[in-house]
Amino acid sequence: MTHGRLPLMAANWKMHFRSGEAARYLAEFLEPGLDRGGCEVLFCVPASLLGEAVAAARGTDLRIGAQNMHWEDAGAFTGEISGPMIASVGATHCLVGHSERRHVFGEDDAVAAQKLRAALRNGIRPVLCVGERIEERRGGHAETVVAHQVRRALEGLAVVELEKVALAYEPVWAIGTGETATPEIARHMHGCVREALAALH
Question: Which of 107, 132, 143, 170 is catalytic?
Answer without folding.
Answer: 170
